[in-house]
Amino acid sequence: MSFVEYSECIQEGDVVIIFLGHESMFPVKVQAGTQTQTRYGAIRHSVDLIGRRYGSKVTCSKGGWVYVLHPTPELWTVSLPHRTQILYATDIAMITMMLELKPGSVVCESGTGSGSLSHSIVRSIAPTGHLYTVEFHQQRADKAAEEFREHKVGHLVTVINQDVCKDGFGVSGVADAVFLDIPSPWEAVPHAKSAMKKQGGRVCSFSPCIEQVQRTCAALAEHGFQEICTLEVLLRLYDVRCVTLPLADLGPDDPAQADPKGAPPSASNAAVTCRTAVAPREMAGHTGYLTFATKSLP
Fold first, then answer.
1. pLDDT tens-place string over residues 171-181
2. Helix (H, G, I), strand (E, B) or coil at 47
């Protein structure tokens, strides 16, 4: 099992996603002889998981059933243990595209947090790229490094425990892209520039407050970055449903067949059923601002 390579069958030591429903799923590390309790009963790892194909429907001890899914960055984002606030797929997709990530890219990230974005970056740059991720908090850095090893992507990630605003990313002139998710990203802009390749690259900063954005944009401009832009991604999900609409009785198509006495047309029960998209009355609001910029050629 790896977050960047698909496996057919579950093996001991794999991390699997137990899917109870779209709003209820959680990760489990498979270990022989152990059990995992769910509201549908127990799942026995040796009997119900090891050797089964990913995507299998597993019956629990109380008669209910769950699906056992192969982990992906998207599933990890919605089921990971939260150590910090995390980025979700809406912002992650925009970041991955705007940073122009591809296999072989070298990326510097700060801070690591719960590793939600890190897993998506690793999948995008595998198998020959590398991620240097900096985390200020010692315990969070150690836990992130442990998770990367468990998920079989440790060879693609270097976790560094230090203050990026004071000590930088620990590398110089190697990064194609830099991502900042820290309280004062403007203090890390000089280190981001030095970490990037001489031929240029892309930088992104995620900030929840517009005052942070203003100071970051000023710092980017001061250090020669170009194409500075800030955007906000809002997700609006439409509900697709079937509706039945009555058909108006406009009388016969041929005027000659109309009732000469001018009697009103008879009531008709004709109707048509169709699918339509209905806008939600409520939607998720502001998450944060994404500021992008380009380091141009010297």
1. 999 999 999 99
2. helix
